[in-house]
Write a structure and sequence with these properties.
Number of helices: 3
Shape: elongated
Structural class: alpha+beta
Distance between the termini: 191 Å
Radius of gyration: 48 Å
Oligomer: single chain
Helix content: 10-25%
Number of strands: 34
Largest sheet: 6 strands, mixed
C-alpha cells in the first residue's frame, strides 16, 4: 500500500513537470519575441505601412500627370494641396509625409516616395514660426524667423523664393531658440526651411511692397567712357504704367517733374559723354497709381583726357631730351606717345605721372617741332607740343641765319629757352636797320636779344663759337 502511494506521487510530480515545460514552450511560442503574436503584430505593421505608402504613391502618380498638364503645378504648395485633398489623415512637414501615423521621405522634384522613417510619435521636428512686417516706406519687408529643436539641434536655416535659396544661416547644431531677420524687396511667397536631424518648412506671404526697379548692373566702380544699365520692374499683382529716368551726379532725390525721358520695362539704357560719378534715377508709376522714385548705385565715367605738359633740354650737339608730365585722377595713365616732326618716335606703356625721351640725330639740326600724346585707361587722350633743339643748332632772326653752340644754359620753366638770345664778350653797340635788335647788360657779359622776347630769369650762357651770315653791326 505504501509502495503504491509513492509511485502515484512520483507520477504526479513528473506529470506536473511535463505540464510546466509544455506551458513554458507554449508561452514562448505565443508571447516571445519570435512568437505568433509578434509575427502577427509585425505583419499587421507592414500591412499598415504598405497601405499608407500606397496612398501616397497613388497621389504622386496623379501629380506626375498634372505636372505636365496643369500650368499652375509646382512642387511646393500645389503638391501639398493635392496630397491634403486626396489623402485623409495626412501631415506634411517639408520633405516628410505622415499618413495614418507612418512617416515617409518624399522627393518633390519628380515626385516620388522615399524610405519609411518611423512612426509619427518617434519623430522630432524643428519648431518654426515666421511673421512679416512692412517697412514704413513700403519699399521692403522683414521676415522674422524663430526656430528650435532641443534634442538634436539646428544646423541650417534657408530662405527660399521661386525655388531658389536667397538667404542662408548656418549653425553648429544649436539647441537653443534661434531668431533671425531677413529683408526682402519683392512681394511673394517665401519658404523658411530649417535643418536638424529632420527638416521642416513654413511658408510666409509678403504683400504690400510697392513695385520697385532693379538695376543690372547696380553701379560700377570701374571708370569707363560709357555704361549700360538694364532696368526691370518686379511686376506682381500691380503692373507698370510708365518708367521715366535721368542721370544725375548727385544722391539728392529729384522732383517728379524733372523726369522727362521715358523707357520700357526690361530696356537697356546707355550713358556716355560725362565725367565723374553719376546715378541712374527712375520714376516708376503703376496702374494702381503708385509712384516710386529710386536710384542705382554710382557709375564712374571718364571722358576727359589727362592733363599734360612737355619741356625739353639740350643733351649734346645732336640730341635733346623731352620731359613729359601727366596726371589723370579718373581711370589713370595708360600710355605715352612721343612725336618729333609729326612722326611717332617712341611709345611707352606705363602708368607713371612722368617720363622722358631722348632724341638723337646725326648732324646739326634746326629746332624740332615735338609733341607728346598721353592716353588714359578709358581711351581718352590729350596732346601738347613744344619746340626742342640740340646744343648745336641754327636759328633765324629777321631773315638772318645764326649758328651757335651752347655749352651751358640756366633758366627757369617760364623762359622762352633763350632761343633768340646770344652773348658777347665785349659790349657792342649795334642796330640792324631798325629791326629792334638791342643789347642788355647782364653780369660781366652782354646779351643780344630780340625786342620783347627777353625773359626775366637769370641768364648764364657761354658760347663756344659764333658765326653770323649777312648780319651787320656798327661798333662804337
Amino acid at each position: 500500500m505504501h509502495s503504491r502511494l509513492c509511485i502515484n506521487l512520483i507520477a504526479l510530480v513528473v506529470t506536473i513537470v511535463v505540464l510546466l515545460i509544455l506551458a513554458g514552450i507554449t508561452l514562448t511560442y505565443v508571447m516571445g519575441d519570435n512568437s505568433i503574436f509578434s509575427h502577427a503584430s509585425e505583419a499587421k505593421l507592414k500591412t499598415e505601412i504598405a497601405k499608407a505608402r500606397e496612398k501616397i504613391e497613388v497621389t504622386f502618380s496623379h501629380a506626375k500627370l498634372l505636372k505636365h498638364t496643369d500650368q499652375k503645378y509646382n512642387q511646393d504648395d500645389y503638391l501639398d494641396d493635392l496630397m491634403e485633398k486626396e489623402i485623409t489623415n495626412i501631415k506634411i512637414s517639408d520633405e516628410i509625409a505622415i499618413v495614418d501615423g507612418y512617416a515617409f521621405e518624399i522627393d518633390r522634384s519628380e515626385p516620388k516616395i522615399g524610405q519609411y522613417i518611423g512612426k509619427e510619435e518617434s519623430l522630432v521636428f524643428p519648431e518654426i514660426s515666421g511673421t512679416v512686417t512692412l517697412a514704413d516706406d513700403k519699399k521692403t519687408a522683414t521676415i522674422h524667423i524663430t526656430a528650435k529643436e532641443t534634442k538634436n539641434g539646428i544646423s541650417k536655416i534657408e530662405i527660399i523664393c521661386d525655388g531658389h535659396v536667397i538667404g542662408e544661416y548656418t549653425y553648429d547644431n544649436n539647441k537653443e531658440q534661434i531668431a533671425e531677420e531677413y529683408e526682402v524687396k519683392q512681394n511673394g511667397s517665401y519658404i523658411i526651411k530649417v535643418y536638424a536631424k529632420l527638416t521642416a518648412r513654413k511658408t510666409v506671404e509678403v504683400d504690400g511692397i510697392v513695385m520697385s526697379i532693379k538695376y543690372m548692373p547696380n553701379g560700377n566702380e570701374e571708370y569707363k567712357k560709357e555704361h549700360q544699365v538694364k532696368i526691370s520692374a518686379n511686376e506682381t499683382d500691380d503692373k507698370v504704367k510708365s518708367i521715366k529716368y535721368q542721370w544725375l551726379n548727385t544722391t539728392l532725390e529729384p522732383a517728379e517733374d524733372t523726369f522727362i525721358i521715358t523707357c520700357e520695362n526690361e530696356e537697356t539704357i546707355t550713358k556716355n559723354g560725362v565725367t565723374g560719378t553719376y546715378y541712374l534715377w527712375t520714376l516708376l508709376e503703376t496702374e494702381k497709381g503708385n509712384k516710386r522714385i529710386e536710384r542705382s548705385e554710382g557709375f564712374k565715367f571718364d571722358n576727359e583726357g589727362p592733363t599734360i605738359s612737355i619741356t625739353s633740354t639740350p643733351v649734346s650737339e645732336t640730341s635733346f631730351k623731352l620731359i613729359a608730365m601727366a596726371s589723370d585722377t579718373k581711370s589713370g595713365i595708360a600710355k605715352y606717345e612721343f612725336y618729333v616732326s609729326d612722326k611717332l618716335v617712341d611709345t611707352q606703356k606705363i602708368t607713371e605721372n612722368s617720363t622722358t625721351y631722348i632724341w638723337s640725330g646725326t648732324e646739326m639740326e634746326e629746332e624740332k617741332a615735338c609733341s607728346v600724346k598721353v592716353i588714359d585707361k578709358a581711351g581718352n587722350s590729350a596732346c601738347v607740343s613744344s619746340n626742342a633743339r640740340t646744343k648745336l643748332h641754327s636759328w633765324k632772326i629777321y631773315g638772318t641765319t645764326v649758328t651757335t653752340k651752347i655749352e651751358e644754359t640756366v633758366y627757369d620753366v617760364n623762359d622762352y629757352f633763350l632761343n633768340r638770345c646770344e652773348v658777347f664778350d665785349k659790349k657792342p653797340s649795334a642796330y640792324l636797320y631798325g629791326s629792334g635788335v638791342g643789347f642788355k647788360e647782364e653780369s660781366s657779359q652782354y646779351v643780344m636779344y630780340e625786342s620783347g622776347r627777353v625773359p626775366g630769369a637769370t641768364i648764364t650762357r657761354k658760347v663756344g663759337s659764333l658765326w653770323f651770315l649777312s648780319l651787320f653791326f656798327y661798333l662804337r
